[in-house]
Amino acid sequence: MPLGARVTPKGVFFRVWAPDRKTVDVIVGDKAYPLHSRPNGYFEALIPHLKAGTLYEYSLDQKDNYPDPCSRYQPEGPHRPSLVIDPDAFCWTDHAWKGLQMPGQVFYEMHVGTFTSEGTFDAALQKLAYLEKLGITVIEVMPVNEWAGRWNWGYDGVNLYSPSHTYGDSESFKRFVNRAHTLGLGVILDVVYNHLGPDECYLDRFTKHYFNRRLKTEWGAALDFSSPHSFGVREFFVQNACYWISEFHLDGLRLDATQNIYDTSPTHILADLSQSARRAAGKKSIIITAENEPQQVQCLLPISEGGYGFDALWSDDFHHSSRVVLTNKHDAYYSDYRGMPQEFISVLKRNFLYQGQTSQWQRKFRGSPTEGHPASSFIFYLQNHDQIANSLEGKRVHQLTSPGRYRAITALWLLSPQAPFFFMGQEWSAKTPFLYFVDHKPELANRIRKGRHAFLSQFPDCASSEAQKKLADPSAEETFLHSKLQWDHQDLYGPYYKLHRDLLRIRRTDSVLSGKTRHSIDGAVLGPQQLVIRFFGSKGDRLLVLNWGQTRHQEPCAEPLLAPLRDSRWTLLWNSEESLYQGSGKKYPQMTITWDLPAESAWLYGTTY
User: Fold this and answer.
1) How far apart, in whole angstroms, are the C-alpha atoms of residue 557 and residue 564?
2) Residues 275 and 130 in one domain
3) What is the number of structural domains in the chain?
4) Which residues contact 92 (CB under 8 A, 6 or more apart)?
């Protein structure tokens, strides 16, 4: 790691970028050690006799002291001294782990601070075997960077190299990753390279060149990746990506809000970062996924074709259509969706719904064509941290709909060819909310509360003063505590767990579904709230019939996709109405002259000769 504090046999080597400063000293206790000025604003020096475990700060122009921008650990938070860490001190046991590739992955999003009552990496580590048994293959850890305050939902990081001290000691994240690999689970980290937290971020004390204040994001000034002085900014963030991959053995990254990362350089910072992270991984294969609200497939293109070389993108379209079906509401940014059967057929076959059409809500073109990209390069979800926390009461999606309708949409979600993505607690239908929580100083906290009220006002149900009284105070301790999963008070292996477990097992082991692509499926609308998806295989087909409306008597059955293969018949493989899922236990639709489709249900058939 060229920046930060590096332990050597002769002492500790320090290097920092501070082009706006004349002098930089390393402060250890009451002693000051001067760093030598180098070209382009860098300062560095080897300080003999220092070792791992040393607390230090940087003194800028012999005035104020600040923590290292590349500190590996902040034992007392972002305002206090940094700790010298020897990354080679940890004893890894995952030498046989080969990394990840996108096909076949099932993601699970985890906020460490609320995943367990303890809110630590070591406590979360104890639950990994449970997730592996469910069928999860990749843990996506929400941002863990050190932040201001006692709790944060993760997107206000200020020390991008330091895992939060509230989650454990300096090696706790490594223990978590090592244990995951032992169980066959991959771990990727959600990283935020579009903005930094609004409090106790000291980068601009070292130089004003980190930010381009002419460009704005939703969270303030944009980071500067393309000005004449941006080389130091680029090194800081590219090195950060490499750091997580190499020192923490992570299997990849999820990049937050990439549409707000601006760069006019010949090589975009995202392409630079992607290439560098893969080099840092060595022989291990990693995956890089991204949130990109405009749905720009450029993110997935090879770097040689002007892309960024990512492996997968989130598909908001699938979530938004599902949300409309589950809640019967399509206001604000859901107004571009109707939750009609054809939307689901189209998104399964084409990954995105918006591929260049005009968005009614945004009043501009949205999306780009996905032809040539496999289904495994798109991540489908029914909920995530954003969609739950950015609501009035932080409710989970199963609480906003009927059990039958949720089971039916879940079947479509988990049997689709795209990569499924869980939000923590979804597997057992957790009743605890996931609220937006931060811990900032009173003046900033008040501005954040007002911003939350303004954001939610786009939804008619949330706009009234009466409704907004229900909005939890982001800075209140109870908001954070109420968001913690309650493992001791849940039926961890109850009907929802069995539903998700069984569908994931079918997805993984069925000879047709396990090898499916979006080009080997077709679909048809059977009614206003009914559809059929057919999966074609070399030795047989699968048929998924869905009804999220009322019971439907299907006659005549003129749809060709309902026809079995020659000399074969359809046999029921699975249905959502089984009593173990708390379904009605109804008999499955008979494949005769007519079909009776029970209300709010899903039925999977296979070919029998």
Assistant:
1) 12
2) yes
3) 3
4) 174, 178, 249
Best CA proximity match to 216, nearest among 191, 200, 194: 194
Are the C-beta atoms of residues 315 and 351 closer than 8 Å to each other? yes
Residues 434 and 530 in one domain: no
Q: Which of 156, 200, 263, 291 is catalytic?
A: 291
Q: Is 256 labeled as catalytic in the residue annotation?
A: yes
Is there a single domain that holds both residue 12 and residue 146? no
| CATH number for the domain harbouring residue 316 | 3.20.20.80
pLDDT of residue 220: 82
**b/e burial code for range 85-95 (CB count within 10 A of at least 16 → b):** bbbeebeeeee
CATH at 10:
2.60.40.10
Residue where a domain terminates, one of 41, 62, 89: 89
* Domain around 432: 107-197+232-445+478-503
Residue 221: the pLDDT is 85
Residue 296 belongs to a domain:
yes
Radius of gyration of the chain (CA): 26
Answer yes or no: pTM beyond 0.85: yes
- How far is 323 from 109, CA to CA, in rounded Å? 19
Give the torsion sign (CA, 453, 454, 459, 460): positive
Are 499 and 524 in a shared domain?
Answer: no
The token pair at 324 is 């409309």
Residues 155, 184 share a domain: yes
Residue 572 lies in a domain: yes
Instruction: Pick the range with the lowest mean pLDDT from 409-413, 484-488, 552-556, 592-596.
Output: 592-596
At 291-313, the pLDDT tens digits run: 999 999 999 999 999 999 999 99
> Beta strand 186-191 with 138-141: parallel, antiparallel or unpaired?
parallel
422 sits in the region (left: phi over 0; alpha: psi -120 to 50; else beta) called beta
Instruction: List alpha helices for 86-206, DSSP H.
Output: 112-115, 121-125, 128-134, 172-182, 203-206
Q: Is residue 427 part of a domain?
A: yes
Q: Give yes or no: 477 in active site.
A: no
Q: Strands (DSSP E) along 97-197, which ranges?
A: 107-110, 138-141, 145-146, 159-163, 186-191
End-to-end CA distance of the chain: 61
Say if 193 falls within a structural domain.
yes
**Same domain membership, residue 308 and residue 187:** yes
The single residue of 171, 199, 224, 256 carrying the catalytic annotation is 256
557-564 CB contacts, 8 Å cutoff, 24+ apart: 557/593, 557/594, 557/595, 559/524, 559/526, 559/532, 560/524, 561/522, 561/523, 561/524, 561/532, 561/534, 562/532, 562/591, 562/595, 564/591, 564/607
Q: How confident is the model at residue 355 (pLDDT cuts 50, 70, 90)?
A: very high
**Domain identity same for 151 and 36:** no
